[in-house]
Automatic annotation (TrEMBL):
Its EC number is 2.5.1.78. The active site is at 97 (proton donor). (2S)-2-hydroxy-3-oxobutyl phosphate binds at residues 94-95, 136. It comes from Flagellimonas algicola. This is 6,7-dimethyl-8-ribityllumazine synthase. The gene is ribH.
Amino acid sequence: MATENKNLSIYDKSKIPNAKSLRFGIVVSEWNEAITEALYKGAFDALVDCGAQQENIIRWSVPGSFELTFGAKKMLTTEEVDAVIAIGSVIRGETSHFDFVCSATAQGIKDLNVAYDVPVIFCVLTDDTLQQAEDRSGGKHGNKGTEAAIAAIQMAVLGN
Ligand SMILES: Nc1c(NC[C@H](O)[C@H](O)[C@H](O)CO)[nH]c(=O)[nH]c1=O
Ligand SMILES: CC(=O)[C@@H](O)COP(=O)(O)O
């Protein structure tokens, strides 16, 4: 289902485990800051809405999405967290750099999920235009940060 047919911000709170006892790390890329800050707000607000304590949400910033893998690895290996959310916004430019950044970031975060026992949630927008990014970070398609927060809670308690 394409995002166009799924609002990224809708969740049934009654079906989401309470996050009161959980600790979360959120690593935020500074590239396209207006987008990533909107994604962060969506994630933070959803975690708190589902019971997370604000003091149990640790935020770190990294320069760009390519650095999210290292930032998430450092977060999960040095902080006591139950899940990490990696937030980025990659917007296509003139060259193929977009493809390399997106691929490396996706593969890197996937690799962390294989190598470690703490879920790392892929909250990285990969858009052709700024409008697409705006639509998915609190715009007409909702907020992928909200979606990522719900996934983080669900994965943090998986198998418990
Ligand atoms: N163009 C975008 C980047 N590029 C920067 C890289 O992520 C990385 O920081 C640099 O290559 C140094 O290692 N990053 C984004 O997050 N979004 C972009 O649109
Ligand atoms: C995703 C990128 O790295 C990209 O925005 C950089 O732009 P350009 O390809 O024009 O150098």
